[in-house]
Amino acid sequence: MKFIKYLSSFLIVVFLFDLSFATEPVILWEKKEINDAVLCINHNPVVPEIIYIGTQKKGILRSGDGGITFEQKNQGIGNNWTIADIEIYPVDPKIVFIVAKEYGSLRGLFRSTNGGENWEKLEVPGGSKVLSITFSPNGTLYAGLEQYGVFRSTDMGNTWRRSSGGGEVSAYSAHHLFHHPTKEGVLIGGFYTTGIEKGLYYTTNSGEYWFKDGDGLPEVVIRENIVQPRVQDLIIEKKSGVIYYAGFNDGGVVAFNGPKNMFLYKSLNSAENWVRVGPGIEGQHIYSLYMHPDNIFFILAGSDTNGIYYSDDAGVHWYKLYSNYRFNRVNDIDYIPVHSGYYLVGTNDDLFIGRDVTSVKNFEKSIFDFKIFPHPFTSFATFEFELQKSCFVSLSIYDLAGKLINRLIDKNLNSGRHKIIWDAKTLSGSFINPGVFIYELRCDTLSFSSKILFLGSIRD
Q1: Exposure letters 40-58 (e unless 16+ CB within 10 A, then b)
Q2: pTM of the predicted model, to two decimals?
Q3: Is residue 343 domain-shared with residue 368, that is, in the same domain?
Q4: Are 115 and 223 within one domain?
Q5: CA-CA distance, 153 to 159, in Å (whole number)?
Q6: Domain boundary, last residue among 356, 377, 409
Q7: What is the pLDDT of residue 259?
Q8: pLDDT by residue (tens digit) across 106-137?
Q9: φ, ψ of residue 121 in degrees (nearest 5)
Q10: How confident is the model at residue 69 (pLDDT cuts 50, 70, 90)?
Q11: 423-453 burial, b for 16+ CB within 10 Å, e for fewer?
């Protein structure tokens, strides 16, 4: 009778689930216990084990071991400051710039010349509030200021020159700036004034003149002002240099909200025209974007309240990236090319670390013809696969919180076909309750995780 009860309880779940989910990628995230919101992440491009994270209330933290441990590095700023942006000087990665503020004060610009050991405050024109910073490939520093537009420095922030061209953006506030990864003097920025979002502008001459961007982006008229969504992140595909992705939120304008509205756009011609991307990510406010450094087709998008989405076809289709945590606003995403490659995700809750999702492709080269049957299952689930070569294999079962339920195998296996059976028991030998679980199959350093549905044991 218990089996009938379990079966009826999960009948709706079975119909709601696409049963192909047994081969959809899942990331098991590890919470780093920073115990604060993480707003920005950056790593040393020469020594990627050196990672900087900016927090809401604990200042800046640095790791020297690839993200295993972090320690505060706040000499010169304060242990409870907010770090809004981190940029590393491309000419010398020991030089780091941050946008920081103490509670109740204006944002300031700070520089470290020794990898974050101590910080000095830099003066900016008019003593204005610094909103954003970015570097050109040759090391020119651009700063977006409140009501002062954009300024640039060619001597690491010691002196400044206006980069707003004397046009309308010179009196705007530049809340986000993005420099082209290879083309010197090509920038795109998000601007606002007196509480009105003015949208995107771009320049091809280091800011001597800015052009209004946004053909194809949504807009509404508020108090006779044309308003666009607020850009939160923008990435540029380095190989071609002309493909842009931009993530937006509504900027507080209710008219932009709704399930059919899109907040992720793509340009194929250097931001001259924009088109919506999807399906699969409709109605999500996008706060962070990341393109895999070795796979320009693989993109991650961090949302406000619904976690992370991914596309493996350059933004044509989007899918929810399942995880064992429910992320509260994904503020930043970075890929760290150490320890076999992994992602760091900064959220309003904490910092999370997860393996490289694109390793699935390499996994399939070592383990192929993978299947689970029956699925969903009631008594036994059989995992069947073929190894191209011998390797150390581990097959583990976790609950949705990431707690280990059982480890079915943990040893070397020879090449050839293998079957592993799970009898729905825990490590202690007791039966699990019906529900959705996560399995992780490892072959040496490669791994793959996805979901498996247990309906309830027929023994009951």
Answers
A1: bbbbbeeebbbbbbbbbeb
A2: 0.78
A3: no
A4: yes
A5: 6
A6: 356
A7: 46
A8: 789 999 999 999 999 999 987 778 999 999 99
A9: -80, 140
A10: very high
A11: ebeeeeeeebebbbbbbbbbbeebbbbbbbb
